[in-house]
């Protein structure tokens, strides 16, 4: 192809473009653009959370088979994140895997209730005992705000938001202790018990009693009284087991 003499040769155009590109790169190196780090949940985490929500809401009741291929199709993902999500839920006690490799939603049983709440009795009681004396004035203000929110949610019987706000409320006290490993384990047990917590909050009267325990816990934190805060947690746990145990089937049957 003949290039008109008045035109800039193509090779020269590429040379100019390359020079400009290199200058731009050098400029970026000398003055790099600052980007904020964008938090990203992995597909595995999102799948695990979706399955967790379906289980704790009762959309996937105890005993439901969890077939990886079917779940992957319904969620629009490959089987790999589903497999990972089921493994996470098995560690959290929401899913059980049989000897043949079949995954099932773990049933609610008396033994499971007793084991979870026995662990909570010890660890959450400890978190309350060491956390309450360390609550700062700022922490106490935050708890006061959350206490008001809990009371409003209880009147509306909004179980979903009540449970999440309830953890926020307790976490302020527990995290004040600085015992992060302890708090992480208490949180894991708290959410493992979520299906049982939903059973507890089945009537307006039980919401009212639950709020009463939180008010007592709030007062103990205000006094920086670790022993009283621990006592409130223990009483709340004892009452939950007393209420639910007779209503649940035994694994021995």
Characterization of the model:
- The chain is mostly helical.
- The chain folds into 2 domains: 63 residues, Arc Repressor Mutant, subunit A (Orthogonal Bundle), CATH 1.10.10.10; 138 residues, Up-down Bundle (Four Helix Bundle (Hemerythrin (Met), subunit A)), CATH 1.20.120.
- Helix content is 69%, strand content 2%.
- The protein is built from 11 helices and 2 strands; from the N terminus they run H-H-H-H-E-E-H-H-H-H-H-H-H.
- Strand 1 and strand 2 form a beta hairpin.
- Helix 5 packs antiparallel against helix 8 and helix 10 packs antiparallel against helix 11.
- The longest helix has 22 residues.
- The chain is globular, with a radius of gyration of 27 Å.
User: What is the gyration radius calculated from CA atoms?
Assistant: 27 Å
CATH class term of the largest domain = Mainly Alpha
Which ranges are low-confidence, i.e. pLDDT below 50, for 5 or more consecutive residues? 1-14, 32-40
- Mean pLDDT metric: 86
């Amino acid at each position: 192809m003949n290039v008109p003499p008045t035109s800039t040769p193509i090779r020269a155009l590429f040379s100019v473009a390359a020079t400009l590109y290199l200058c731009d790169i050098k400029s970026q190196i000398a003055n790099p653009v600052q980007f904020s780090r964008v938090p990203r949940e992995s597909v595995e985490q999102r799948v695990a959370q979706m399955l967790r929500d379906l289980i704790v809401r009762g959309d996937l009741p105890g005993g439901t088979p969890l077939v990886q291929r079917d779940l992957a199709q319904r969620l629009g993902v490959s089987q790999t994140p589903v497999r990972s999500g089921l493994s996470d839920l098995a560690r959290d006690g929401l899913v059980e895997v049989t000897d043949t490799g079949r995954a099932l939603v773990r049933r609610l049983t008396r033994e499971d209730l007793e084991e979870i709440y026995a662990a909570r009795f010890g660890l959450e009681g400890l978190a309350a005992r060491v956390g309450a004396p360390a609550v700062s004035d700022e922490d106490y203000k935050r708890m006061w705000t959350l206490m008001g929110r809990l009371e409003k949610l209880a009147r509306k019987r909004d179980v979903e938001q009540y449970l999440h706000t309830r953890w926020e409320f307790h976490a302020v006290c527990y995290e004040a202790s600085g015992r992060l490993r302890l708090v992480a384990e208490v949180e894991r047990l708290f959410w493992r018990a979520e299906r049982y917590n939903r059973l507890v909050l089945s009537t307006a009267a039980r919401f009212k009693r639950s709020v009463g325990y939180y008010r007592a816990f709030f007062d103990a934190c205000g006094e920086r009284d670790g022993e009283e805060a621990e006592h409130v947690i223990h009483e709340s746990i004892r009452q939950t087991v007393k209420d639910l145990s007779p209503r649940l089937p035994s694994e021995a049957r």
